[in-house]
Amino acid sequence: GALIPVVGVSNGSLARLTGNPVLAVAILFAVGLAASCGVLLVTGVHGVAALRQAPPWLFVGGLIVGFYVLSVTVLAPRFGVGNTILFAVAAQVVTSAVIDQFGLLGAVQKPVNVIRAAGIVVLVAGLVMTQLAAKKV
Hints:
Blueprint: H1 4-18, H2 21-43, H3 60-79, H4 81-102, H5 114-136
């Protein structure tokens, strides 16, 4: 998690250098694919046969990550790394709470209690406060 802002800065800089955010994202995924394949070769290729049984929606993660990385690549240079990541984290926490509450997508159902809901409210309030503080500078 600590390196996610580094991705925003490095990919934003690569996009600015090339003038093409999609190219920057493609390079990021090519490097990630090469690294993943290297680790796969070292640790052993197994589980490939099970992929035939996987429903198509299990592969949507690649599209989501692609959208996320492209968004961060475009937004971080415009809004700042901190703001971009702050909004992403807030969205992740809220979405995670909804998934847990209803046990969506096969997740274990974990109802949101009052304390957890209060924490989410504090997180969103902090997000609003940081945006208001940034406008006063």
